[in-house]
Amino acid sequence: MQRTYIANVQPGTKVQISGFLENIRNKRAMAFLVLRDITGKIQITVIKDENPEIAEKIDALTIDTVVTITGEVVANPHVKLNGLEILPETLHIDSVADALPIQDDSAIDHKMDFRWVDLRSERNQLIFKVQTWIANSFRQTLLNENFLEIHTPKLINTASESGSDVFALEYFDRQAYLAQSPQFYKQMAMSAGFERVFECGPVFRAEKSYTNRHATEFTGFDIEMSYIDSYRDVMQMQEKMLHSMLLAVNEKFGEDIKRLFDVEIIVPQTPFPVMKLEEVYAELSNRYGYTVPIEEQGDLTTEAEQLCEKLAWDKFNHEFLFVTHYGAKKRAFYHMRDENGTPLGYDLIWKGIEITTGAQREHRYEYLEKQAQEKGLFADVEHYLEFFKYGCPPHGGFGMGLDRITMLALNIAIKEVMFLFRGPNRLTP
Questions:
Q1: What is the crossing angle of helices 122-144 and 402-410, to 10°?
Q2: Is the link from the previous residue into 271 a cis peptide, with omega within 30 of 0?
Q3: The dihedral of CA 11, 15, 18, 23: what is its sign?
Q4: What are phi and psi of 318, to 5 degrees?
Q5: DSSP letter string over 310-377?
Q6: What is the pTM of this model?
Q7: In which element (H, E) is residue 35 found?
Q8: Domains of the chain with CATH codes
């Protein structure tokens, strides 16, 4: 008999189901089992006198033992679990579970040691259902906008791709590095005439950060698009993606997210509010008395970033805020600049956390060469500069962390939204 998912069982049918035992109530004459699979839970009611072979196996069962059961699905209004129960005809023990090494209230780092057990819960499996839906929504939005999906190398020959630290490794007779983003290669795709590309893939950052939002390896979602008139074209694409993503997540999982995480998914209105960096600091000073040190006025400080959550709500009644007009010192050399030397880019703040740096890129070789020399990077990026010698359309793009988006959507820590977290102190399992 073919296996049936629990969510698909119907009263009056005979089914075969498989899963983990979540609860066992073994009485003298009857036993009640709760079985769960990835789609839901159902009660198994064993009448021992009628099922002596099954009754003999009950004592061997433990929590999270894996079993396969065949039987009739019966509607029973007295059963609290969806009003259904299965009267089993056979019970096969696939794998007996030892006493579980973690509990719901165990410390998160202890749970990480036994992540495969931790992930069995309905709550944790919902995280990855949501994340799947987020990634699918991003892809569908971009496919509908004529984007191509590419897969760029994660082994690179230069350590100067961005301002972040990199992981170095031996590569035969020379040194290589793990990529911090697909930035250079998605721009190469613009020079190749691909026009619009995206990638969902691993990103590596050798930063000793111990916050609840940083990881040394995570999944990045990057796009690049040609023939733009302004970085605002990139912003519009991103807000379209995020609107579609949150709408899809809310429609599919909104009730479950509210039940298990006590979070309301807010589908944002478009366009998102936009403020210049100097306007942000003026508002933070006037509204909340926050003053930024002069030497940091060209960038958004961590404290200011956090206050942007309150500012976005108080000023715009919105969860998101685009911040533009940063100083050139803190921006990448490949960002295009206006006639005043101001980078043509932005950060997107969601719930007080930066989720994106986006920009129009400099596509003219002579300007790129000059800006790379200004930052002392010319020797490291000489091969990258070759992409722009033979014609390249105006273009721009951004990168987002899929894990951080999931984290903020559910209001939980980064460790919880990653299948296997990687940080300075975590390299197993």
A1: 120
A2: yes
A3: positive
A4: -145, 150
A5: HHIIIIIS-SEEEEE---GGGS-TTB-B-TTS-BSEEEEEETTEEEEEEEEBP--HHHHHHHHHHTT-
A6: 0.94
A7: strand 30-37
A8: 6-95 (2.40.50.140), 115-417 (3.30.930.10)
Per-residue CA distances from 103 to 107, 112, 117, 240, 260 (Å):
9, 12, 10, 40, 17
Q: With contact defined as beta carbons under 8 Å apart, do 319 and 355 qualify?
A: no
Tokens of 256: 């479950």
Residue type, 147: F
- Classify residue 100 as left (phi > 0), alpha (psi -120 to 50) or beta: beta
Q: For residue 412, what are the CA distances in angstroms to 243, 254, 257, 297, 417? A: 21, 16, 12, 30, 8
Using CA atoms of 241, 243, 245, 248 in order, give the dihedral in degrees to the nearest 10.
Answer: -140
- State pLDDT tens for residues 269-315: 999 999 999 999 999 999 999 999 999 999 999 999 999 999 999 99
Residue with tokens 């715009």: 316
107-119 per-position pLDDT tens digit: 999 999 999 999 9
The answer to whether 140 and 158 have CB atoms below 8 angstroms apart is: no
Q: Tokens representing 385?
A: 């500069």
